[in-house]
Design brief:
Elements: E1 4-8, H1 15-23, E2 40-45, H2 49-57, E3 62-64, E4 67-72, H3 87-94, E5 99-105, H4 121-150, H5 156-173, H6 185-193, E6 202-207, H7 218-230, E7 233-237, H8 239-247, H9 253-259, H10 266-278, E8 280-286, E9 290-297, H11 302-309, H12 311-315, E10 317-324, H13 325-331, H14 334-339, E11 344-346, E12 356-362
Parallel strand pairs: 1-4, 1-5, 3-9, 5-6, 6-7
Antiparallel strand pairs: 2-4, 8-9, 10-11, 10-12
Helix pairs in contact: 1-8, 4-5
């Protein structure tokens, strides 16, 4: 499952610095309001200590973590929805992503220019949200017109899509995001088909200075309150620190993090935050050639999990041998798992759990 998340935010909030740090793509962006025209793309591994736990017992040549594809999308400015700045080029890039990572500046620094004066996270969020909503309204107007014409014959499907589109239009006119409509499963299919930006799940990334990595500052507190009201999620990190971590040799990073009172880099909880946001989980395959983490929706059954590896695996699924990483760590080998009855044979109705290790049997 190839995940895409778009990193958005006003110019100079630390968005590109964060992207460069997460993808080790190079030096931090220059300190002046500047926007790249095309999105930079980077593949970011999802840190998971369970991979090393498996490898400590099942020695393998290659370890492959799950990953998230990040798009560093050009900074948005007021009027983008009507073509100001990079306008529709930005908005076109973001329509295809699975989730939006909204980087918000939550620190004071007179040497870092803010396009609207002093930092104000809620004002910045409103600026971005307004432009996204205006862009969505323009798109929705065309969708409403399309289904209004198509429904004149009384076609039930056309009328259904028209009703959903009109409700989305009202939400946006009321200053609410399309994702907040309390949609049924059937309605949500229509919402997703509209490809609205405000229908995407949002993770607010509060970019703080080093002093803000302990307790929440007032800026972060305000963003958390906003996110709670929207049903969105929040992570707090320091993009500058993340960039410094990437410049260090791997063996020096634990000491650097410990000095800051951090257990792990911001990359780890940012990547996990995307997983939570999208309702995803991880299962593993393990053998002498490779140990690999695979991404699936929470609630996926065994054949669906097999299909992530290859569609033939899902089509010809017979059964799966399943055990947990936790049991492997305790018992120390697959042979011991079998002997203890901890390796189960599961069929097509088995609901995969986060942390399962699976061996599939299939026939095509």
């Amino acid at each position: 499952m190839a995940l895409q998340a778009g990193i958005v935010g006003l110019p100079n909030v630390g968005k590109s610095t964060l992207f460069n740090a997460l993808t080790a793509a190079g030096a931090a962006a220059a300190n002046f309001p500047f926007c790249t025209i095309d999105p930079n793309v980077g593949v970011v591994p999802v840190p998971d200590p369970r991979l090393d736990q498996i490898n400590a017992i099942i020695k393998s040549k290659v370890i492959l973590p799950a990953s998230v594809e990040l798009l560093d999308i050009a900074g948005l400015v007021r009027g983008a929805s009507t073509g100001a700045g990079l306008g529709n080029k930005f908005l076109g890039h973001i329509r295809g992503v699975d989730a939006v990572l909204h980087v918000v500046r939550c620190f004071d620094d007179p040497d870092v220019i803010h396009v609207d004066g002093d930092p104000d996270p809620l004002r910045d969020i409103d600026t971005i949200d307004t432009e996204l909503a205006l862009a969505d309204l323009e798109s929705l107007t065309r969708r409403v017109d399309k289904y209004r014409k198509g429904s004149k014959s009384g076609d039930k499907e056309q009328l259904f899509h028209l009703g959903v589109a009109e409700r989305m239009e009202k939400l946006l006119n009321d200053g609410k995001a399309a994702r907040g409509g309390g949609w049924t499963e059937e309605e949500w299919v229509s919402v997703k088909d509209a490809q609205l930006i405000t229908a995407k799940p949002v993770l607010y990334v509060c970019n703080v200075d080093e002093g803000g990595l302990g307790a929440d500052n007032a800026y972060v507190t305000s963003v958390r309150a906003r996110a709670a009201a929207e049903g969105a999620q929040v992570v707090v990190l320091c993009a500058k620190i993340e960039a410094e971590i990437q410049e260090l040799p791997a063996e020096d990073r634990p000491v650097f993090l410990a000095d800051l009172g951090l257990a792990e880099p911001g990359l780890a909880f940012l990547a996990r935050g995307v997983y939570r946001l999208l309702g995803l989980q991880t299962y593993f395959t393990a053998g002498p050639k490779e140990i690999r983490a695979w991404t699936i929706p929470i609630g996926a059954k065994a054949p669906q999990a097999a299909g992530v590896i290859h569609t033939d695996f899902e089509r010809g699924f017979i059964r799966a041998e399943v055990y947990s990483v936790a049991d492997l760590v305790v018992l120390g080998s697959e042979a011991a798992l079998k002997q203890a009855g901890k390796m189960q044979v599961e069929g097509k109705e088995y609901v995969v759990k986060d942390g399962d290790v699976m061996h599939f049997r299939f026939n095509v």
